[in-house]
Design a protein that fits this description.
By secondary structure, the chain is mainly β. 5% of the residues lie in helices and 56% in strands. It is globular and about 65 Å long. The strands form two sheets. It has an 18-stranded antiparallel barrel. Strands 9-8-16 form a three-stranded antiparallel sheet, with no helix packed on it. It starts with 8 loop residues before the first helix and ends with a strand.
């Protein structure tokens, strides 16, 4: 449930400092190795819908917000077991919104259908470290093949629980954890987790916990890595993942491959119905100078769409933030081109153009579903002068389908990260 908290920027910063445990603060290692950053993010988001499919006939979603993200990471106290803490404070401010243009995922939606003027959250995680093994309890932001860090709106989501990461063996990283709740990207309070199946979110399917365990092993001078993972969103789905990444220099070229396979089944009480999905993806790349070319193929099998925790993207090779290309039986192909203008003497300027097309979707409406999406991203980071490190990103999308609503999308993001210490 979303909870609105009225809090000023100064109060937010002061609250972050107050969460440092006094016993830790007295230790030099805790303070001297600590880091803190403040990111300011100005985000405009607009989607125009046409050929609308479904009961929601809203033709436009458009909002504008200002976000602040304060991250603090302590060092560790001395001794065989080091202790520390991490903290995150987030503040989102409404700049423009209305009831008939809401539900962008940028701002909360109140009971009257309107966005509040502001929303905020503070969270802390206590941590302990032995050798190269770290335990955290509290506010977490994991980034895993089975739960990707989806920082794609004004503020990033967080989770509440426990995690452990161990890198005792060179090249091998093992992880595990149990998450009991989440704070969504446009909410201030904690909520139970639920699932998405493709583009659908079963409204009554809430889980008490998300459990995960897995690891990645890098070898071949760390040019090759292999991952094996298991995840369970209790009473909704369980999931297995195997992945392989490889990079290979070839003269002036650098070739790359990213391959993965997910197998997902219904779990326990089956609160989201019959989850049965097998997903394969492949994304191949070739880089030379400022040019990088990609081609990708992705396929869904089984009796359902691909499941993931709401409202996240996944590491599937052809998934993008507008269309997921992960519906039941969907097959999709991608062509993408990136260019880094540093190769032409314009450092900080990058551009991406991508086209994805799909077919074979089981729509349940008596015909085969198809979809296409074209993305254009341009980003620039100021390299010097008083505006150094200020970033601007423009995203334009045209997405079309014969079984879901068409979307024309624009995003404009201004960002700046200040290193406090």
């Amino acid at each position: 449930m979303m909870q609105r908290v009225s809090i000023s920027r100064l109060t937010l910063a002061a609250g972050m400092t107050s969460m440092i445990p006094p016993a830790f603060a007295a230790d030099a290692g805790f303070i001297t190795d600590a880091t803190a950053t403040l990111q300011a993010r100005n985000y405009y988001f607009s989607r125009d819908f046409s050929d609308i499919v479904g009961p929601n006939q809203q033709s436009k979603a458009e909002e504008w917000g200002q976000g602040f993200i304060l991250n603090f990471r302590s060092g560790y106290t001395p001794g065989a077991v080091g202790f520390g803490s991490d903290a995150i404070g987030q503040l989102g401010i409404k700049l423009d919104s209305s009831r008939d243009r809401s539900v962008t995922g940028l701002l909360p939606v109140g009971s009257d259908g309107r966005a509040p003027d502001e929303y905020s959250r503070m969270g802390v995680a206590l941590k302990a470290k032995v050798s190269k093994t770290e335990l955290k309890v509290g506010e977490l932001q994991p980034n895993l093949p089975v739960l990707a860090f989806s920082d794609i709106r004004l503020l990033p989501p967080t989770y509440q629980g426990v995690s452990i990461v161990s890198s005792e063996v060179d090249g091998l990283t093992l992880q595990g954890g149990r998450l009991r709740s989440t704070s969504l990207r446009n909410e201030a309070g904690d909520d139970r987790m639920r699932a998405m199946l493709g583009r659908t979110t079963p409204q009554a399917a809430f889980s008490d916990a998300f459990n995960y365990a897995g690891g990645d092993y890098a070898f071949n001078a760390k040019r090759t890595s292999f991952g094996l993972w298991y995840a369970q969103l209790e009473d909704i789905y369980n999931q297995r993942y195997i992945g392989l990444k490889h990079s290979e220099p070839l003269g002036d070229w650098a070739l790359g491959a990213n391959l993965g396979y997910y197998d997902s089944q219904a779990d326990g009480g089956k609160l989201a119905g019959n989850v049965d999905n097998q997903a394969f993806y492949s994304l191949l790349s070739a880089k030379r100078g400022g040019h990088t070319f990609y081609i990708g193929y992705q396929a869904m099998y089984g009796d359902s769409a691909f499941p993931r925790v709401f409202a996240n993207v996944s590491p599937l090779g052809n998934e993008v933030p507008t269309y997921e290309f992960a519906e039941r039986d969907e097959r999709s192909w991608q062509a993408r081109y990136d260019y880094d203008f540093a190769a032409m003497g314009w450092p900080g300027l990058i551009a991406t153009v991508r086209y994805i097309t799909s077919d074979n979707v089981s729509t349940g409406m008596g015909f085969e579903g198809t979809a296409q999406e074209r993305d254009l991203d341009i980003g620039y980071t100021v390299q010097s002068g008083p505006l150094k490190n200020v970033g601007i990103r423009l995203r334009n999308v045209a997405a079309r389908s014969n079984y879901r609503s068409d979307i024309d999308e624009n995003r404009l993001i201004l960002s700046y990260t200040l290193t406090l210490f």
